[in-house]
Specification:
The protein has about 260 residues and is an all-alpha fold. It is built from 13 helices and two strands; from the N terminus they run H-E-E-H-H-H-H-H-H-H-H-H-H-H-H.
Length: about 260
């Protein structure tokens, strides 16, 4: 029964990914812009030596880090309330509320945020009585959009991780004189850390490769938008540049494994 879906995954997904990465080692004819199937490392050399590519990669990594931090800060109290405080009925309602945005189309949410961040949007209308204005079509605006888009991907793993913590451990901490902050720091946070890492993998990797929201919200270039823009004129260079988020995510996973974040997942 698994043969057909596995074949589809291997042939269509991994096959196309292999061809894409293989094309990173091909060349481009400078006159016709056609792909020349000769082995070369010039595309990687160009990415490393060109300042623009390095700046865009660094900007994208920074955005992914800031989005992940914001989602962790927002998701943890929500997930904790859902897992440890809310009644069963209220918990179910909150789970539905978290899942509900995932049912909406990505483009619909992105264009909705484009309207919210516009000059006549909700944010600027709220700031206008105070004589303030907000440039929504900026890096900060994009950060808000990404934080909203990937927040459910952080809440759900953290909620699942917090729900698995036995109540007896919290009671034992209280019996031993541990205050609320001490219990959180020495019991809850270490046990929930693998779930936080699991959620951060989603938020970090999804931000690295997204090109739709950056194209709609800001004129700043990110890895996804650069790859999308140059894929027609220089496909080998675009394929080589796509290796950057892959390498960054692999490095992130290795660091998480080094920190033993996956041992109790």
């Amino acid at each position: 029964m698994l043969a057909l879906p596995l074949a589809w995954l291997v042939i269509v997904y991994f096959g196309s990914l292999f061809v894409l990465l293989l094309s990173a080692f091909w060349d481009t004819d400078p006159f016709t812009a056609e792909i020349v199937h000769t082995f070369t490392l010039e595309n990687f050399q160009k990415i490393i030596e060109t300042q623009v590519y390095r700046d865009v990669a660094w900007r994208t990594i920074q955005m992914a880090v800031f989005v992940t931090i914001a989602d962790i800060v927002l998701a943890f109290p929500i997930a904790y309330y859902m897992a440890r405080v809310a009644s069963r009925r209220r918990r179910n309602l909150l789970v539905v509320a978290v899942l509900l945005p995932l049912w909406a189309n990505y483009l619909v949410k992105a264009y909705a945020w484009r309207t919210i961040l516009s000059e006549g949007g909700v944010i600027n209308c709220a700031l206008e009585p105070f004589g303030l204005s907000f440039d929504g079509y900026s890096t900060v605006g994009l950060w808000l959009v990404f934080t909203y888009l990937w927040l459910p991907f952080m809440i759900l793993p953290v909620y699942a991780g917090l729900e698995r913590i036995p109540a007896s451990l919290l009671e034992a901490s209280a019996d031993l004189g541990g205050r609320s902050f001490t219990t959180f720091r020495r019991v809850i946070l270490p046990l929930a850390f693998p779930a936080v890492v699991a959620g951060s993998i989603f938020t970090f990797s999804l931000t690295l490769g997204d090109y739709i929201a950056p194209g709609l919200i800001t004129s700043e270039q990110f890895i996804g938008t650069v790859i999308y823009n140059i894929r027609g004129q220089a496909l080998p260079t675009a394929a080589a540049y796509s290796m950057v988020p892959i390498v960054v995510v692999i490095a992130y996973l290795l660091v998480a494994r080094k920190l033993k974040a996956f041992e109790s997942l």
